[in-house]
């Protein structure tokens, strides 16, 4: 079965940095793409970033371009999201998800953020203080 575990969240002050991790198991890592989503209280879930470990393609939401960097360590079946210049509006629960969708369709899902079912699990809380 597909298993994903998000970790690494915590408290950070505005302007600081944090790295969250997504550890994968139960599937062939390079056959999937991995996406990060986030949801803040009272707001819709939004796609943040995604990566195709097989070829290195990446995508970022406009709100995080230039600040966040996604990467994969294929030997460890782990995807990382390095978050720099964090702002209070980045405060949210961050979730990771695995997809077999073609890249173009995955980008569509990332842009939508919501409107489809996924077993999100617990996610990891990121809180940015002013």
How much helical structure, as a percent, in the residues?
under 10%
Low-confidence stretches: none
Backbone structural class: mainly beta
Total number of β-strand segments? 10
The end-to-end distance, rounded to whole angstroms, is 40 Å
| Number of alpha- plus pi-helical segments | 1
Q: Summarize the biggest pleated sheet.
A: 6 strands, mixed
Which series of helices and strands comes N to C?
EEEEEEEEEHE
Strand content: 35-45%
Strand neighbour order, sheet with most strands? 2-10-9-4-5-6
What does this entry look like structurally?
This protein is mainly beta and 130 residues long. 8% of the residues lie in helices and 45% in strands. It is built from one helix and ten strands. The chain has one helix at 103-112, and strands spanning 3-7, 11-13, 18-25, 33-39, 46-51, 58-60, 68-73, 78-83, 92-99, 124-129. It has a six-stranded mixed beta sheet, covered by helices on one side. A four-stranded antiparallel beta sheet has the order 1-3-8-7, with no helix packed on it. The protein is globular. The N and C termini lie far apart (40 Å). The relative contact order is 0.30. The mean pLDDT is 94.
What would a concise description of this structure say?
This protein has 130 residues and is mostly beta strands. Helices cover 8% and strands 45% of the residues.
Task: Spell out the blueprint of helices and strands.
Blueprint: E1 3-7, E2 11-13, E3 18-25, E4 33-39, E5 46-51, E6 58-60, E7 68-73, E8 78-83, E9 92-99, H1 103-112, E10 124-129
Parallel strand pairs: 2-10
Antiparallel strand pairs: 1-3, 3-8, 4-5, 4-9, 5-6, 7-8, 9-10
